[in-house]
Specification:
Length: 441
């Protein structure tokens, strides 16, 4: 039932592509999974540790790691126990258990703003449900958000994240997909990140309509832009002064540099946050964490709906517990820090030698690649110097040499390593990146 054939010849690969396109739009299950550098989907056959093998049997050292979801590595050994335990407990679908409470307790212990938790499956689902709560609690519908940040694909926030340069001042703000109603865009106030004056002015101007300040504290989705000193602190003050909810979307930044996420890394505690990606060790799991006062607005205590047949499936909860057990070990962070130090020292050398202007920005185990500049990038407008065609060529060069970077359609996004990468793997990645850039010069 589960068998499939490898597609080692060009003819077999073309036939697989054809089969895929006939039943899946573009041959993929997620639009951005279509690899533009290759002009076709990446069909994988299996993965293990820091590597995956494609359907032609080619081995790749993985520098995407499922966009950060498999931070422990592909097929981490704890998953075997997870699947066995889930089987032993009969799967337990649509029912809570003491294990659900235990994971919520663990997350509330680790993440500074967490006093209560609710589980969801994807990051998009988490931000959608969290924003409903923010609106109910503040009683105001508009949301301040920042250019370059990403908060999922739904109608509430797939607006003004990554507009083309000539749409930065669009009113109503730029919608990032066909099908998003204009009325949704009218509820979004987009601002440049790291611009305190712009934030103060917008809060003053919209204080009667804006109830939420939504931030991706480390803007991984635009090449990894860090918060400038004082920015998150000022957002915290303004939100408190004006009874706005400060919402950190930490779907990506959770557990990248510390177990408490960016709110721990930068010492600013929001009212609510969403965490996800690596939380499920490769299985779908995300969570909303926040103050008791805010979170108890959820039914059945309060008046905000949040339910779902697949909320917190047991297998994902077990995987979440396995993940938390890993990140709770000091040795976990020692390994991440030592690999990061090795990688980022090498990247600095590579950037300095590169014949093509390139900038690497980093936080914890992930980093951005921005082509077209060697200077620090602190907001979305600056990141627009990035050259998508150069990124696609870079991805072709590295995959030809056996190192996989996800191409993000050529966008400046994020890449990273996992616990399963070794120092030798990091050295190989650096060698391949260097060779690729030199070949492109
Ligand atoms: C900050 C942030 N929020 C939300 C999302 C959406 O998460 P998902 O892809 O699980 O829906 C992502 C995914 O990249 C993200 O990085």
């Amino acid at each position: 039932m589960f068998d499939f054939e490898m597609a080692e010849t060009d003819e077999a690969l073309a036939a697989l592509n054809e089969r895929g396109r006939n039943v899946l739009p573009g041959g993929v299950c997620s639009s951005t999974r279509f690899n533009q550098a290759w002009g076709r989907p990446v069909y994988a056959s299996r993965s293990q540790g820091a590597r995956f093998w494609d359907i032609q049997g080619r081995e790749f050292l993985d520098m995407s790691m499922s966009h950060g979801a498999t931070l422990l590595g592909h097929g981490h050994e704890s998953l075997k126990q997870v699947f066995e335990k889930a089987w032993e407990l009969g799967g337990l679908c649509s029912l809570d258990s003491p294990l659900h409470i235990e994971l919520a307790e663990e997350l509330c212990r680790l993440v500074p703003c967490g006093e209560r938790a609710r589980f969801t499956s994807s990051g998009s689902e988490a931000t959608l449900h969290a924003l409903r709560l923010c609106r109910a609690a503040s009683g105001r519908e508009k949301i301040i958000r920042f250019f370059g940040h990403f908060h999922g694909y739904h109608e509430l926030t797939f607006i003004a994240g990554h507009p083309p340069a000539d749409q930065l001042d669009a009113s109503p703000p730029y919608r990032e997909s066909a099908g998003i109603p204009q009325s949704m865009a009218e509820l979004i106030v987009p601002l440049p990140y790291n611009d305190i004056a712009a934030l103060e002015a917008a809060v003053e101007r919209h204080k009667d309509e804006v109830g939420t300040i939504l931030i991706e504290p480390v803007d991984f989705n635009c090449g990894c832009i860090l918060p400038e000193p004082g920015f998150l602190e000022r957002a915290r003050e303004l939100a408190s002064e004006h009874n706005m909810v400060l919402f950190f979307d930490e779907i990506q930044s959770f557990a990248k540099k510390s177990a408490g996420g960016a709110q721990q890394d930068f010492g600013v505690t929001p009212d609510i946050c969403t965490i996800g990606k690596s939380l499920g060790a490769g299985l779908p799991l995300s969570a909303i964490l926040g103050s008791a006062e805010l979170m108890d607005r959820y039914k059945p205590v309060g008046d905000v709906a949040h339910s779902g047949t697949f909320n917190a499936p047991l297998t994902s909860i077990l995987a979440g517990l396995a993940f938390v057990a890993e990140i709770d070990r000091p040795e976990f962070w020692q390994t991440i820090e030592s690999l990061a130090a090795r990688l980022f020292a090498g990247l600095d050398d590579i950037a300095a030698r590169s014949p093509i202007p390139v900038r690497f920005q980093r936080h914890g185990s992930r980093f951005g690649i921005i082509f077209g500049t060697r200077e620090p990038v602190i907001n979305y407008r600056q990141s627009l110097c990035h050259k998508p065609e150069t990124m696609l060529e870079f991805c072709r060069q590295t995959t030809d040499r056996g190192v996989y970077f996800h191409d993000y359609g050529g966008g400046a996004c994020h890449h990273g390593f996992s616990l399963a990468h070794t120092a030798d793997d990091i050295d190989r990645v650096l060698e391949v990146m260097d060779e690729s850039l030199q070949a492109m010069g």
